[in-house]
Amino acid sequence: MGGLSELSRYWIRLKEGFLSIFILLSLICVWEIIARAGIFVYLMPPFSLIVLRLIEMLVTGVLTRHILISLARSFIGFTVAAALGVSLGIVMGWSKRVYRVVDPIIELMRPLPAIALIPLAILFLGIGEAPKFFIISFACFWPILTNTVYGVRGVDDYLIKSAKSMNAKQGDLLVKVAVPAASPYIFGGLRISLAVSFIMLIGSEMVAAQNGLGFLILLYEETFRIKEMYAVLILLVLLAYLTSRILLKIEDHFIAWHKAITIKKR
């Protein structure tokens, strides 16, 4: 029965995967038909020609430097935000006193749009890489911090009491009980912030950069190279999807125990 149930779940996942691919291919076909019909002749080139142009740009190496630069900016900004957000979030979630002192400041700063800080970042940090790292880190910091705080503060009190009954020290309670229990929330914040990092990357590169994928998108739009503009957009989507899948694999490794007892098991 167990093997049959596992086989059934496998076929269900396989059919769901085919359905997702079918929907995606259907949308691409609609795009191709509309473009070939000439409804948006200048603004919407056929998808097939865009893909061919993207392959050509990748093979010739036109995009290589810009891809590496953009990924480095996104990774550095995201990593800094993750380190700061998780660290402060754990402290705030564990200490009621720190939470009461810092939370009003957090709630005051959190709604501030990161994109609005680009002029200030350029003014104080110049036009190099520093303002881009700052903007990406600033935007990514808040989802990670908020999820970490709620994850640590939401740890089941029975877990803490059970650990105390076995003479666990405060450090062990935090490291071996609270943080692992809060890890699904932490990874949730990381996944949200990973998408935010790409959004802010493109925004900052459009405003203050001479390289990167955001710079290319704006350059191709201004010079009316529409196929190239769409090609870079598609590449950006693929890169964001790939990095998201990598993070999901890391998440599966660290919190497999959580997914084994939650709705994903069904």
Walk me through what this model shows.
With 266 residues, this protein is mainly alpha-helical. The protein folds into two domains: 1-44; 50-265, MetI-like fold (Orthogonal Bundle). The protein is built from eleven helices and no strands. Helix 3 crosses helix 4 (96-109) and helix 8 runs antiparallel to helix 10 (226-254). The longest helix has 38 residues, at 170-207. The two termini are 15 Å apart.
Class per helix and strand makeup: mainly alpha
Tally of strands: 0
CATH topology of the largest domain: MetI-like fold
Rounded mean pLDDT is 88
How many structural domains are formed by the residues?
A: 2
User: Which superfamily, in CATH terms, is the homologous superfamily of the largest domain?
Assistant: MetI-like
CATH architecture of the largest domain: Orthogonal Bundle
Shape: flat
Distance linking N and C termini: 15 Å
**H/E element string?**
HHHHHHHHHHH
Largest sheet: none
CATH class (first level) name of the largest domain = Mainly Alpha
Helix content: over 70%
Please compute the radius of gyration using only Cα atoms: 23 Å
- Percentage of β-strand residues: under 5%
What is the helix tally? 11
Key structural traits:
2 domains; 11 helices; mainly alpha; 266 residues; MetI-like fold
Outline the secondary-structure elements.
Layout: H1 2-36, H2 47-60, H3 64-94, H4 96-109, H5 118-125, H6 130-153, H7 157-165, H8 170-207, H9 213-222, H10 226-254, H11 256-259
Helix pairs in contact: 2-10, 3-4, 3-6, 3-8, 5-6, 6-8, 8-9, 8-10, 9-10
